[in-house]
């Protein structure tokens, strides 16, 4: 599943083969982000725009490349049986600080439309569990994002 998508991304995002590990991590992270914005069964423009800007910033890619990554990760998310293959890559290649950044980004995406759907919270909880993040970190990230929204 990831191999086919990685090949497509290499062709379309013009990544070099030596960047395979980074490309796989980009894709895995984008799929997790996609799962959150799809959780409430509404593809909100605010969520999509925020995801695009996150991908541009986090992975140093162009806006066009981010749009292509969103499109391909959305397709991958629709066909994925579970999140394990994606979270396994994140666990293998990210340290605790990077995983916490991903968690905070997930919360930002969930709140992008000014409404936290229970399905969004549930998927973030599942992802946090699969990333071996403690519940306290799950709550701290949520509160941090809420505080930033209130300011």
Provide a descriptive summary of the structure in words:
It comes from Lacimicrobium alkaliphilum. With 151 residues, the chain is mainly α. It has one domain (2-150): Orthogonal Bundle (TerB-like), CATH 1.10.3680. It contains eight helices and no strands. It has helices at residues 2-13, 20-38, 45-59, 63-79, 84-93, 96-111, 118-130, 135-150. It starts with a helix and ends with a helix.
What's the short version?
This protein has helices at residues 2-13, 20-38, 45-59, 63-79, 84-93, 96-111, 118-130, 135-150. It has 151 residues and is mainly alpha-helical.
Topology readout:
Blueprint: H1 2-13, H2 20-38, H3 45-59, H4 63-79, H5 84-93, H6 96-111, H7 118-130, H8 135-150
Helix pairs in contact: 1-2, 1-4, 2-3, 2-4, 2-5, 2-6, 2-7, 3-4, 3-6, 6-7, 6-8
How much is the average pLDDT?
85
Order of helices and strands: HHHHHHHH
CATH architecture designation: Orthogonal Bundle
User: Helix coverage percent of residues?
Assistant: over 70%
Q: Roughly what fraction of the amino acids lie in strands?
A: under 5%
- Uncertain parts: 13-18
Structural class: mainly alpha
Give the domain tally: 1
Features:
8 helices, TerB-like, mainly alpha, 151 residues, DjlA_N
């Amino acid at each position: 599943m990831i191999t086919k998508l990685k090949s497509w991304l290499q062709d379309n995002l013009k990544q070099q083969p030596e960047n395979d590990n980074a490309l796989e991590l980009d894709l895995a992270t984008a799929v997790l982000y996609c799962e959150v914005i799809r959780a409430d069964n509404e593809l909100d423009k605010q969520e999509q725009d925020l995801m695009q800007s996150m991908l541009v910033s986090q992975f140093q890619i162009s806006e066009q490349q981010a749009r292509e990554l969103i499109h391909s990760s959305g397709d991958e998310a629709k066909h994925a049986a579970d999140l394990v293959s994606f979270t396994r890559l994140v666990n293998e290649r990210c340290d605790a600080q990077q995983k916490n950044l991903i968690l905070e980004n997930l919360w930002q995406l969930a709140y992008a439309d000014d409404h936290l759907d229970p399905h969004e919270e549930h998927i973030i909880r599942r992802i946090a569990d699969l990333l071996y993040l403690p519940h306290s970190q799950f709550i701290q990230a949520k509160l941090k994002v809420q505080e930033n929204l209130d300011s």
